[in-house]
Design brief:
- It contains three helices and two strands, in the order ββααα.
- A hairpin with a 2-residue loop joins strand 1 and strand 2.
- The radius of gyration is 18 Å and the shape is elongated.
- The protein starts with 8 loop residues before the first strand and ends with a helix.
- Keywords: Copper, Cytoplasm, DNA-binding, Metal-binding, Repressor, Transcription, Transcription regulation.
- It is found in: Cytoplasm.
- It comes from Glycomyces paridis.
């Protein structure tokens, strides 16, 4: 589904920045930590570690990704959806709500 991502972006000299631009360093650190966990899981499989220990690490990595996703979703609601709601364009507002709802549905699918 194509989205009109420019609605909630701030435009600067360096181009387009989304609301999370100020949190990018924290998000990047968290994602790098998750990346390390995933590499650890791969290493555990390669080294024939106990399956329950691997599943425990998978669970931790999954929870980390879910936390990042929730952070991004909260920001999307607070910034992009709220901005669309106050724009005076009911179609744009409805589209942003639908976009957020679709994102939640994707996150809940297992």
């Amino acid at each position: 589904m194509a989205t009109d991502q420019t609605d909630c972006a701030a435009h600067g000299d360096e181009g387009q920045h989304y609301w999370y631009h100020g949190d990018k360093a924290a998000l990047t650190r968290r994602l790098k930590r998750i990346e390390g966990q995933i590499r650890g899981i791969q290493r555990m499989v390669e080294e024939d570690e106990y399956c329950i220990d691997i599943l425990t690490q998978i669970s931790a990595s999954t929870k980390g990704l879910q936390a990042v996703a929730l952070n991004l979703l909260e920001g999307h609601l607070a910034h992009c959806v709220a901005e669309a709601q106050t724009s005076g364009d009911p179609e744009a507002a409805q589209a942003k709500v639908k976009e957020a709802s679709d994102a939640v549905a994707r996150l809940l699918r297992t």
